[in-house]
Model the fold of this input.
Amino acid sequence: MGTTQLETVPEPKYWHLRTVLSEALDSEFSVGEILPNERDLAARFGVARATLRQALEQLELEGRLQRRRGVGTTVAPPRMGVSVGTARHAWPGGPLDAWQTLDCVLEVPPAAVAETLVTGREEPVHVVRRSRVTHGQPVAAELLYIPADSVPALPAIDTPSGAPRARAVLRELQRLELERQENAVELGSARADDARELDRLPGAPVLVVTTRFIARGRTAALSMATYRADTCRLTFGDSGGVQIHHGPERHAS
Done:
């Protein structure tokens, strides 16, 4: 990578540096290779470390770089191709569902979730935790909130806590007739729990997909799934589902 006179360009310094770094990643670095440390990079380009960090953060957001605990900043592999939620009318836990069920607890949800589910502020709901792994790499983590009245027969089921209980909750949920599901996606930052599960640093860019499952004219379940922004490119097709693609594209859409 050569030195660039950043002061002469009208665009923000970090954006021009991002362009230069992106070209260098294509020509001089291979997937998984560790970049020089921030001090060396900043000195080479004659910029402040704050400017360098902005450029690196932008490239991480675009999926070009990864920050790894105990390793540093590395060149990211291409985004993985994996399909999720391709059926418009499908409850979580169905036969085509590729998520792995991990745990289930009964607890009071965040206020915003309780409002969406139209439950009392202090009313506990079933919280099912699930994960998605592709090619041995974690790509998404999900919290699925299910009110007790969506699975009324569950108390009669003698199922221990943990994954068996979670699977029982999902089986009971599928007894309802699903009317429709509504999806929304937004860019966010990884919380500590999500970062740990997705092997990311806290604050790393993530894509949060919120899905409302509507039955009997109300929200019978609410999914909040967190995807690695450096791994996934989300698109919504005619089926109403969400798909993750890989390819030459380097941005989240």
About this structure: Residues 81-86, 244-253 have pLDDT under 50 and may be disordered. Helices lie at 13-28, 38-45, 49-61, 111-117, 163-173, 192-198. The two ends are 29 Å apart (CA to CA).
